[in-house]
Write a structure and sequence with these properties.
The protein is of the alpha/beta class. The protein contains nine helices and seven strands.
């Protein structure tokens, strides 16, 4: 069966794309997720797994600059049953300045692994519940299949979360694209004053030379048809033969309203 997902490019995936520009865009995504309360949604999903499986470490894969996972950790630690939980962030290409930011702080419960951790190979990943937050759609189908198969083969718990969904027919997506891009670019102009940390690059390349709004709008829109819909996930999972391992999937919810989709793989 054919996947609905299509392979478009996103600026942030190019290795020539400057790190400082990627960071400016990531800061906007984190701000958007804070506005939407994504950390609470994720914390709820994760807390259940940690408690039910007796796990005390979260190993985030494809962490980039961390996204909302540090916020999620703080929420989890407010729960008396989870106040010992640790977060280890990892990436295939760990970035030196991000490593420094997380590894030189005084909080022992949060760290960034300096070694390259490939999400397609769970044998090399640190212990704990593996999470992939808004990073699974960056994986082309061959890699996506490897990730699911590797989690299952190594009997590792895995939570995949995507804030968006891929429900719009592709033709309609193309038709609406010009308007959607303009709306997102205008949104960036209003969101930017609330970005933390607010650097001179963020201001100059938003209001004077508007590279950030253009790249953010494209990546934001392009990521939607790149998301593996729940139906796509069903197709990918149907190719696996789980033994002593259970897959579940569905809509994540905030106050009974849908907020993103998730796929969870757990050893029995
Ligand atoms: C969109 S970014 C980071 C998303 C981040 N989780 C967040 O919420 O902001 C996706 C990341 O996946 C990483 N990546 C790409 N292929 C990977 C792989 N095979 N294994 C691990 N990380 C990978 C990239 O280096 C990039 O930092």
């Amino acid at each position: 069966m054919e996947l609905k997902r299509i392979q478009l490019f996103e600026f942030e995936d190019f290795n020539w794309f400057p790190d400082w520009l990627r960071t400016c865009m990531t800061n906007l995504i984190v701000l958007l997720q804070r506005m939407l309360g994504t950390s609470e949604v994720l914390a709820k999903l994760i807390a259940n797994v940690l408690k039910n499986q007796g796990i005390s470490q979260i190993t985030d894969l494809g962490s980039g600059s961390g996204g909302v996972m540090p916020d999620v950790l703080q929420i989890l630690k407010e729960d008396s049953e989870l106040n010992e939980v640790r977060l280890v962030m990892t990436d295939l290409y760990p970035n030196a300045s991000i490593l420094k930011k997380f590894n030189e702080n005084k909080d022992d419960s949060i760290s960034y692994d300096p070694s390259s951790v490939d999400a397609t190979n769970f044998s090399s990943a640190p212990e704990g519940l593996k999470t992939m937050v808004n990073s699974f759609h960056h994986m082309p189908p061959d890699k996506a299949r490897k990730i699911l198969a590797s989690a299952q083969e190594h009997k590792q718990p895995l939570l995949i979360y995507e804030l968006g969904d891929n429900k719009l027919p592709v033709l309609l997506w193309w038709f609406l694209l010009p308007v959607s891009l303009i709306i997102l670019m205008i949104m960036v102009l209003f969101m930017t004053p609330f970005v933390k940390p607010l650097t001179w690059q963020q201001l100059v390349f938003t209001y004077l030379i508007p590279i950030i709004p253009v790249c953010y709008a494209w990546d934001g829109q392009a990521s939607l048809p790149r998301i593996y819909s729940l139906k796509d996930m069903e197709i990918l999972l149907s190719e696996l033969n789980p033994q002593n391992y259970v897959w579940t999937k569905g809509y994540a919810k905030k106050n009974s309203k849908k907020q993103g989709i998730y796929v969870m793989g757990l050893p029995k």
